[in-house]
Input
Amino acid sequence: MSANAPSISDQVKQLKRRLELWREAVLPVYAVLVWEKPWHPGLLGGVSTVFFLLFWYLDPSVLTTLALMGLVVTICDYAIHLIGSYARHPEQGDKWTGKDEKKLEEVCHNVVSTQAIIASMVKNFFQMRSTRTKTYYAITITSLIILSFLGGMINNLFFTYCVVTFILLLPGMKQQGLLHQWKSTVLNAVGGSKTSSKKSD
Output
């Protein structure tokens, strides 16, 4: 991290300030994304499925899609603003507790940490162009070929649905330790196959 780059704590504070009007919605959304209830994965998959089924059925144009997305974002922003103002209204009493504030800080810290990891991975990948040129071009060309193959073989809307659903479920899989379990299973399987091949030799 460079000397002028803000620290993690500074980034967390900045994110908390940006989410001030959205804080009443951040906590329940985060709870769903990390699967605090057993039915949360089904909810995420169901919402994604219904959305893409409607999109497939209505088959809107690109301009209509952009307009509807903007409309939904604007309505959500306005609704959250009203909810936040009502929750903090002095006559209604402050419903935001210290426990909620601590939870919001934890959410912001997780978001900032994830952003830092992704930024580091992207930076390291593009640094390979200078440090490991052959590996960089091999990975890039192979990935683009695979994507072009998938784009030609699989319906693009269905492929987008799979990607979006996976992204929605990813925080919960990470929180519940499923990614670590799958990684360990794959590594054990690869290690077992290597051991058996050496014994056969």
Summary: The helical segments are 8-18, 23-33, 40-58, 62-87, 98-131, 133-153, 156-175, 178-200. Residues 23-84+103-187 form one domain. The radius of gyration is 22 Å. The longest helix spans residues 98-131.
